[in-house]
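User: Can you predict the 3D structure of asparagine synthase (glutamine-hydrolyzing)? Sequence below.
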Amino acid sequence: MSGLAAWVDFGREDVVNPAMVRQMARRLRHRGPDGEGEWSAPHVAFAVQRLAAVAPAVTAQPAVAPDRAVLMLDGMIYNHEDLRRELRGRGRWCPSGGDAEVALAAYVEWGAEFASRLEGMFAIVVWDPRREELLLVRDRLGVKPLCYAQRGTGLIAGSEPKALLAHPAVDPVVDADGLRELFAHGKLPGTTVFKDIFEVRPGHCVRFGGSGLIQQRYWTLEAVPHQDDLPATVAAVRRLLTEAVSSHRRGDVPVDAMLSGGIDSSALTALAARDDAGLRSYSVNFAGYTENFRPHPTMRATPDAPFAAMVAEHVGTRHTEILVDLAELTDPGLHRAAMAAQDAPSPLGDMDASLLLFFRRLGEQGRRAVLSGETADEVFDGYFWAYDPQHSNSTTFPWVSFERGHDAAAGGLGCSLIDRSLRKGLDFLGYADSHYRDALTEVSHLPGATAQERRAREVTYLALTRWAPTHLDRADRLSMAAGVQLRPPFCDHRLIEYVYNVPAELKRAGGREKGLLREAVGDLLPAPVLQRRKSAYPTIQEAAYGDAVRRRFAEVASDPGAAVAPLLDPAATTAALAAAEAPKGAFAWVERASMEMVLQLDAWLTDYAVVLRV
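Assistant: Sure. Here are the predicted structure tokens for asparagine synthase (glutamine-hydrolyzing):
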């Protein structure tokens, strides 16, 4: 795992300054605290910060094939040993090093087409001196981040926007579309909140040479007939998930398991424990949460701790519950760090903060890699809005439809305190709805599919291509901010391609959410876990947390010189300050999301010296 930075310019030969690229990479030291490397030639410079995860003694980066190509890799190529054997069997050059060197040899052999042969989570930057071309590649689901900015005859690239913003040619400008990206909850693939800083889209390559920039897709979700009956489907899912867990546990550092006691993390933990008698599992909890838990009808019916402990005992892991207390969670510095990790403000408040604390604790204990259940809900239709007709049949993204049913999030989660005239002018809702309609045009359907079948496929496609990338990016950024590598086996593209084409009724085998997954791991887990309803990531329910958020909000909202002041709606701010008490209860996180967002916005505008051009 690494932090990548690159700069190529086809103008003057002396315009590219390797020291500047080195400075960009050092903004990413959290992604690679174990070492650094650099390489340069006329027109181009690379720099990398490296986290040792595979064969640390032999994976120095950038990897160089003299006169043929230079490559940097963030992530892991899980099939690198298979590729090495294939290349050697073809009589081709292939070094004895790790996965970065194998990826380099694959590029030398197949050119840009090598991306479709790679399995894993990866962001890759390649310089080809023969073609005088820079190539950027991102994995199929977008697990690992990679962004770029074109400036004149040059291209500046890096793992995160903070690296690009270290370059003098890249300014932290946020225009109207940037604000829409912050608030609409209907992300446009390939964009960031910063003007003219773009992401490489998942499953895509970006090629930049003397003739300009070209985007190419190398992977997409295709509709194909599903021929297997339920028993065969269950067996296939079990096999594919077992293989995915095995591949995601490869490397030269121990790979632990995040364990919430939900079906997703429990399935991964149980499969991993079969091959590792000493497997460590970790969960996060708030002090006093389990004892004082209050359920919510759609978001969370039960606390995690009893179920996590049950799974750990059942499969035999060495389990640790990481407790987060109120004092830690209300630290403004922690929330600022969570914002900086993501290069943008977020309304998720204690969820971001507690997750960052969780990864910090892992890092402090010397843990470097952990399995995560990210994307299982998108693959197996686990979200209630995926099958609730009110939301799944709406004329916008199903999750946006759900948000619009709640006053606190009706205009977009976290934006109820933003100036009403600004919201009306920027049309956050219309922005999301427009992207929704565009996304539907990408979906392929089987001939003769019924309207119900077509809609089920569309909802899954939307979840995998518009909902999952945002959450994968969040998980990567918060984990890598602590130098911990998050590995999501449910993102294995073979598993996704198979389950994507499973009919909705089979995915809900037995009439249960994620029934297919439950059937596939039914022999591995205790019955209460198999029967447990999906629960969202936990949020603190202690009223004192809401009080602390409100106090901080009052300080910022009462300061006319605050950076965020011009964006606030006076009437909504006055009403929030006049409320008898801070939001509390099982759904308080949604009600306080707007206050959390204002605090994050103020820190972001200040720390990043953001220039607003709306």
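Residues 260 and 308 are 5 Å apart (CA to CA). The first strand starts at residue 2 and ends at 9.
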